Amino acid sequence: MTPPGPPEAPPPDAPIARSTRSHDDLARRLEAWLRDGPPGLEGAAVTGLSVPETGGMSSETLLFDLTWTEEGRTRRARRVARVEPDPGDMPVFPRYDLAAQARVMRLVAEHTAVPVPAVVAVEEDPAVLGTPFIVMERVDGRVPPDVMPYTMEGWLRDSPEADRRALQDATVRVLAALHAVGPATCDLSFLTYDAPGDTPLRRHVEHWRRYYDWVRADIRFPLLDAAFARLDDTWPAEEGPAALSWGDARIGNVIYRDHEPAAVLDWEMAGVAPPGVDLGWFVVLHRFFDGIAEMLGVEGLPTFARRADVIDAYARAGGQVPGDPDFFELYAALRHGIVMARVHARRVHFGEAAWPDDPDDAIMHRPMLESMLDGS
Prior knowledge:
Blueprint: H1 23-36, E1 42-50, E2 60-70, E3 73-83, H2 98-111, E4 119-123, E5 133-137, H3 155-158, H4 161-179, H5 200-216, H6 222-233, E6 243-245, E7 254-257, E8 260-264, E9 271-273, H7 276-295, H8 307-316, H9 325-349, H10 366-374
Antiparallel strand pairs: 1-2, 2-3, 3-5, 4-5, 6-9, 7-8
Helix pairs in contact: 4-8, 5-9, 6-9, 6-10, 7-9, 9-10
């Protein structure tokens, strides 16, 4: 019998505070920077600034329309600014490096056919908007939403099964293309984790263990401790090759047109890791969103992103299939559990939730992680 959802889990359409910044103030400061700063765009004007409501809660995303004058003619463009969060808004991660994210996107554009937004500018001076930011071209298309989850409603759920499969396989081909990039083909040293370990996977896990220590502070999460212990006990004999890892490999970070990727987004978790890290995350994150639908009595998308189908599509795309998918899916569920613990702490910070008596109840996919540990 599947245990009920955790008591403190918010409904999927509950408003979640992402930032305390004034959008009007951000628009004015961004406009001044575009006009008088390094971009130097004559007569630059920012209009229609908005924040997408269906995505994540890490870096702040600003969508805006830009007009300026060039050689006496009015020019127009649609832009996106990705802004590091205000430290006072209890960020999800302890450190953000948008310059490195811009470097990853440019690397991907140079070495692969994976579509990424073109980076227009990088501003590392926090004096402009309060924290560093990057500006990118805006790509048209549709993104499977997190709120309400795409497993419950929306264009992807309403698509024919064949179109959903086409989208799934096209996204898996993105992973295979990214994983073809490794330290032997280009410089990935800026993505190598400064953590102990004699392999990329060892360093990756140690990096996340340190992040867990930062997230939990003086709180213990027995479920997450048990997952780390299980990883140590079941370490794969063959880890897989070192490769460029997207880090947050899920369909909610892709803009699609006609069920094909038009832009791959959100590179703040990028690193160097074996392919199993991204493949496990891809499978588990869908399982998480499907679990939300099931918890609310809605049939989700149970035939989407199944392990066997993902591995088959990955192999057909030329990827080297990991030898121990159980390990990598447990690692994905553990990593997501750490992020969920931090997200819950943010909700407490913004007065939207309280800490449950059992800290493990702050992990929304607790039943899934428990089932991985007990073998059920």
